[in-house]
Amino acid sequence: MILVFVEDNYLHETDGTAISTHRFREELIKQGHTVRILAIGVKGQDMYGLKEHHVPIVSAVARKNNMHFAKFDKKIVTEAFTGADLVHLTFPWQMEQRCLALAKKMGIPASAAFHCQPENVTYNIKLKLLRFINSIVFLVFRIWIYRKIDNIHCPSRFTARELARHRYNARLHIISNGISSSFTPPSEKVIKESDTIHILMTGRLAEEKRQDLVIKAVRHSKYKDKIQIHFLGRGPMYKYYLRLGSSLPKPPEFITAFIPQEQLLDLIYKTDVYVHASEAELEGIACLEAISCGKVPIISDSKTSAASQFALDERSLFKKGKYLNLRDKLDYWIEHPKERERMEKEYARLGKSYNIKYSVKKLEKMFKDTIRDFNTEKMIREDKKLKQYYRRVKRNNYPKEFFCTLFYFIIAIPILTILNRCWFGLKIKNRRYLRKIKKTGAVAICNHIHEMDSPICAVGIPWRKLIFVSKPVNFTMTGAGPLVDILGSVPSPSSPRELQIFIYTLSKKLRERRLVLFFPEGEISHYNKDLRTFQRGAFYLAADARVPVLPIKITYRDPGGFYKLIRKKPCLTLVFGEPLFPDDTLSKNEAINELKEKAEKTMQLLA
């Protein structure tokens, strides 16, 4: 593939996003791809240099945090995009917005990454206490660019959760920015100074990174005379931290210039404990590098930081903003060198799973998904029959859908509830599990033992409108056909091209918090007590949309009381199982297989 990365800050190698882009580019080239870079001041093969865009006031603040904005140049951008298979956008700024518009005009698929956390903005404009501002920034970013993108790269589960919480309905791909294979424990034992304890923290010297907590914690430590702090990074808080640390017996060392990887490794190797005090972090790649080298971390438990995911136990977490708690954790690890040595091996093992090569494979898959979605949209536009099928699956006749929804909740659900209770003696168990999918879409799966399975499941979740998947022939049945349509069913695909549209459309609906009901066994087997082999389709959709699978099982019981007089067949009980979430650390194929296996086991146990 010919890929174009739009990254304003590519030349600023102290910036975490720029470092990740460099690494991704190197690995993608090794995989045989051509990677073009569109950024400020770049030169060379496959490099397309732009001038810097100066925004009054904003640029002055941004430069202090190593953020520079590129100026859009249509001629250069067009040259970079010509012949490209995909454009990947790194930030939501004006330059990227115009690049996206041009890519669409040129007929090139586009994906994006989410690397700018709203807290990075609010902390630096002194509005961190007004938390609602973060939600406004999320909304602004979504309006600017992310609502126009179908595939977004999220560096961590935390990032994906935050985007989903703020109504980002794109397909969210959780892909670590990855670390180089060079970040491993030292091959030889490092000789350390016996009278000095080295503490390292890497990151911009910005307010949200909270290097001040490290200085204050050391000041109150019983080992303050032995501790030497190393801060790697630069930023607007440099002078303040310099003054704050000057009173320590061993003033902190500030390394504000870019250092080669070999020098960085030497610094990490001589470190005794790595501290990550940041209160806002989308992944924490610097922390991950230290961990991969076998260093025990102490990380803030801030709810707006993803770095806490790397802590293996409570000894490596301190309470957000509490420097005395950080001091206690620091003193513990200093006083227990043998335990620290044991945990260093555990952390090094954890770091192996974040290798850049694994991340690149997942990134390639995201690019292929983006191109597939683009081709699906193109196919829908160009083929009248497929466009008609797409409309039937999407159900985008909004006036009709409004009346169908009214009919569903006001007429159908009450009647079906009475019918199922009276005729089948229907009972419902474990509805408490529905709370776990209250704010998300889900793929509901049920065993298929009766023609009334769909209405029975609808009665089980009366406050949410289910999307039923039905055979096309059911829409043409005399009498019942219109009812199948009115209740919100969508036709199952009958060709590979329709299948592509089916997956594309339902995946979007799931990401928009809809519930889709599947019968993974396929055909009906009346009152069959044994589960049959599940098909993969439902689990593919769940993994693709990153939504849980909700197991539902219809079980039987002998008629009792009044039902002995009116029923010869068993009475029915609808049992809900605990939602099963796809594993974001696995590849999509692995996640599909794992979901399917878990669902089969769960359904076997439901009774």
Task: Please characterize this protein's 3D structure.
The strands form 4 sheets. Strands 3-2-1-6-7-8-9 form a 7-stranded parallel beta sheet, sandwiched between helices. The chain has 22 helices and 22 strands. The two termini are 50 Å apart. Strand 18, helix 18 and strand 19 form a beta-alpha-beta unit. Helices cover 43% and strands 16% of the residues. The protein is α/β, with parallel strands linked by helices.
Helix content bin: 40-55%
Strand segment tally: 22
- Work out the oligomeric state of the chains in this entry: single chain
Biggest sheet: strand arrangement? 3-2-1-6-7-8-9
| Poorly predicted spans | none
Q: Output the number of helix runs.
A: 22
Key terms:
43% helix, alpha/beta, 22 helices, 7-stranded mixed sheet, 607 residues
Describe the structure in brief.
With 607 residues, the protein is of the alpha/beta class. It contains 22 helices and 22 strands.
Q: In terms of topology, how is this protein built?
A:
Blueprint: E1 2-6, H1 16-30, E2 34-40, E3 47-50, E4 52-53, H2 58-64, E5 69-70, H3 74-81, E6 86-89, H4 94-105, E7 110-113, H5 118-124, H6 132-144, E8 151-154, H7 157-165, E9 171-174, E10 197-202, H8 211-219, E11 227-232, H9 238-245, E12 253-255, H10 261-269, E13 273-276, H11 285-292, E14 297-300, E15 317-318, H12 323-335, H13 337-351, H14 356-382, H15 384-394, H16 398-423, E16 427-429, E17 442-446, H17 453-460, E18 466-470, H18 480-486, E19 489-491, H19 496-511, E20 515-518, H20 537-545, E21 549-557, H21 563-566, E22 571-576, H22 588-605
